[in-house]
Amino acid sequence: MKNFRTIFKFELDNYFKSKSYMLLTIIIAIIAATLMFIPRIIDSVKGEDDSKDSGVESEVNEEDLRNMAIYNPEGLGDMEMLAGYFSDAKFTECSSADEVKKLVEDEKAEGGFVIKSSTEFDFYVFNKSMDNNDAEVFTEYMRMVVKMEYCEANGLNLDEYLAVEYAEINVNENILGKDGMQNYWYCYILVIIVFMVIIAYGTAIASGVTNEKSNRSIEILVTSTSTTALLFGKVLAGVVAAVFQFGLIGAASIGSYQLNKDYLPNMLGMFLDIPGEVLLTFAIFGIGGFLFYAFMYGALGALVSKIEDLNKTAGSAQMIIMIVYMVTLFGIMDPDGILMKICSYLPISSYSAMFARVAMGSVAMWEIVLSAVLLYASVIGMGILGGKIFRNSTLRYGNPIKLSNAIKGLKKQD
Q1: Residue-range domains of the chain with CATH
Q2: Distance between CA 193 and CA 247 in Å, rounded?
């Protein structure tokens, strides 16, 4: 296509020469990578401190212990055993429930317990924080008291009883298909990412077309090159910019995670420990879906002459994308269901539905290939259709052109 390379380079330079685009991309990538290294750095600093303090017996400073209150009229349990459950606290034994309550009200104790029986107690706290688990810890202590009483009443050995109750059971889990629990979160995140990319960059492409049309610069452009080259240059430049931006951020996050995974919480693996085949599928279908909607957005941008009219015209595309997004998110829970199977072959939804099926369910290779062929064939079709709409609409000014009228105009020409 005439001058396609020049247009593509110009549009791509607009992204890469944008300070906001480059700064945002680099800053987010650096922050993502740095966060992954923080636990390793902290661990190394702690290691140095531990080596300096080795051989020195640490003593518990009573001033650092929390003050707790307890009223135990029947003398159940053992204070020494209770101290084992609350290693960060010291207990004041009270003579009544009112004394416990008074200490808590005066904030001389962070919490207080009144034991009514081996199976019931009252817990007092002035302001309960979100991470306060004192009642749960005390419940575990009281359960141990019940076991002690039972063993004593029935002439059983407590250690033998506990060995049976807490017998270690070894489970050898063999997942022959996909681990839905492990794969759910990164699948969820990637579906959101491709949704955001399509909306953000699709809107940017449509806005660029509308701006050129509103300031009449499109009149100069169409006299020096073909409208098809203009549309393809804008769309493919947007794809490269999006892949670069999110690819760099993703590579920084996943790469840093792999280097520091031994120092990071296991929970992060649900988001960043992504198999290569899943990433490849995401790239193939994500780029295909982006191309499909980018051509659509480019054509829709040519239908209006004013930027304020763009939202109304592009609303139909955004509605389709939103519906696909919601269907996929709900369909993740049943990836092999009939709805997800249908959506995984439709070009408007296969970019996320097929990816979700590959990540969460069982999909034959021929299904993936067929879906990819249908998607990219539709991309070519949308590119050709978008190019024709773009050509017929760029020099038409005034009120927004309805999409149905634009398509009818193409039929008349044919």
Answers
A1: 64-165 (3.40.190), 179-413 (no CATH)
A2: 11
Specify the amino acid at residue 227: T
Condensed to tens digits (0 to 9), the pLDDT of residues 308-335 reads: 777 777 788 889 899 999 999 888 888 8
Nearest 5°: the CA angle 378, 380, 385 is 90
pLDDT at 269 over 80: no
Per-residue three-class SS string for the chain: CCCHHHHHHHHHHHHHCCHHHHHHHHHHHHHHHHHHHHHHHHHHHHHHHHHHHCCCCCCCCHHHCEEEEEECCCCCCCHHHHHHHCCCEEEEECCCHHHHHHHHHCCCCCEEEEEEECCEEEEECCCCCCCCCHHHHHHHHHHHHHHHHHHHHCCCCHHHHHHHHCCCCCCCCCCCCCCHHHHHHHHHHHHHHHHHHHHHHHHHHHHHHHHHHHCCHHHHHHHHCCHHHHHHHHHHHHHHHHHHHHHHHHHHHHHHHHHHHHHCCHHHHHHHCCCHHHHHHHHHHHHHHHHHHHHHHHHHHCCCCCHHHHHHHHHHHHHHHHHHHHHHHHHCCCCCCHHHHHHCCCCCCHHHHHHHHHHHCCCCHHHHHHHHHHHHHHHHHHHHHHHHHHHHHCCCCCCCCCHHHHHHHHHHHC
The reported pLDDT for the residue numbered 57 is 47
Average pLDDT, the chain: 83
What percent of the chain lies above the pLDDT cut of 70? 84
Determine the Cα–Cα distance for residues 401 and 406; give it in Å rounded to an integer: 7
Instruction: Compute the chain's Rg from CA coordinates.
Output: 32
Q: What pLDDT was estimated at residue 262?
A: 81
Average pLDDT over residues 160-189: 80
Q: Percent of the chain having pLDDT more than 90? A: 27
* Residue of higher predicted confidence among 39 and 16: 16
* 122 φ, ψ (degrees, to nearest 5): -105, 140
